[in-house]
Amino acid sequence: MAGEGEGPRENLTGQDQNDGDTKKNKGVETESPIRDHRHHQRGQPPRRRSRPPPQALRCSLCLFLVALLLLMGITTLIVWLVYRPHRPRFNVQAAAVYELNATALTTITASMQFTVAARNPNKRSSAEFRNIYAFVSFRDQAITANTPLPDLNLAAKSTVVISPILGGGFVPISPEVSSGLAMAEAYGLVPMRWILQGRLRWRSGVFKSGFYGIYVKCDVMVGLKPGLAGQVPLLGAPDCAVDL
């Protein structure tokens, strides 16, 4: 009886062992892929961060340059609005005629001196004149040659008086101008125009503008009689017109 009873127990025990082995094998089978996967992840090299493409870098650089230029333009505009200069002012104060000979119908010789005050009305900007010259005209035709003048610098709120002698040589004119000048001289009143041309630049502290062309015209009426030379009276002294 004892032998018969022990047989089934051994069979059950063997079956239990088989079941345990099967569970262990299943456990190994389920755990091994995870371990292999973790091991595979640990063995991979670290991923590098992706770099932006060259096109994106160029776009960023262009945007930065555009923003920088825009900022510089706004700054320049603000400075210009703050230091915006006004045109210089010119005024003829005196005149002298030393020679005015229009005996020939096509040429004239003249020597004149005009005293002109140039004023800079700006508080923060100085004016710099370069490559300037002056001459005198009658009826929109020059009766003196162009006379170069030295460079002129006007500090803020300052006035400079210039008195150049113009002419001294033969200048070609039309017969109409020659006859008209003779008639005006005989009448005793000669309308003349003193003209200055050149280039002007403004300076405000460390900031300076580009050069502008400047054209100054001063219309005066001179009391003149034939045979008289020297200081002549001016009928009125209006301000000159200034074009930039």
From TrEMBL:
<dbReference type="GO" id="GO:0098542">
    <property type="term" value="P:defense response to other organism"/>
</dbReference>
<keyword id="KW-0812">Transmembrane</keyword>
<feature type="compositionally biased region" description="Basic residues">
    <location>
        <begin position="36"/>
        <end position="51"/>
    </location>
</feature>
<dbReference type="GO" id="GO:0009506">
    <property type="term" value="C:plasmodesma"/>
</dbReference>
<feature type="transmembrane region" description="Helical">
    <location>
        <begin position="56"/>
        <end position="83"/>
    </location>
</feature>
<feature type="region of interest" description="Disordered">
    <location>
        <begin position="1"/>
        <end position="54"/>
    </location>
</feature>
<protein>
    <recommendedName>
        <fullName>Late embryogenesis abundant protein LEA-2 subgroup domain-containing protein</fullName>
    </recommendedName>
</protein>
<keyword id="KW-0472">Membrane</keyword>
<dbReference type="GO" id="GO:0005886">
    <property type="term" value="C:plasma membrane"/>
</dbReference>
<keyword id="KW-1133">Transmembrane helix</keyword>
<feature type="compositionally biased region" description="Basic and acidic residues">
    <location>
        <begin position="20"/>
        <end position="35"/>
    </location>
</feature>
<dbReference type="InterPro" id="IPR044839">
    <property type="entry name" value="NDR1-like"/>
</dbReference>
